[in-house]
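Supplementary Note 3. Input sequence used for the single-chain structure prediction.
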Amino acid sequence: MTATATRPPADPQLRSRWGLFARRDFRLLWAGQTVSRLGGSVTTVALPLVAVLTLDAGPFASGLLTAAIWLPWPDRVSGRRCTSSGRSAWSRR
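The predicted structure, written as discrete structure tokens, is reproduced below.
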């Protein structure tokens, strides 16, 4: 007596040679994350470089700028409080 294994029907959407890239939602997520990471990496290098070349920033200012790029900024700060803090800091100049 031989037993024959029956395979479940292959769903073409799940079993394509492209894997997860066959799904539109995953492609959109992947593309968005790729662009976001690339933009973050470019900003890390380009922002201090522009500050040095355009604004004649010194090493200390470049270091502060680089540190500010890597600091975690809270998302829970209200827009009004953040705007008023920026205005008061700008007026003290």
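The mean pLDDT is 76. The radius of gyration is 25 Å.
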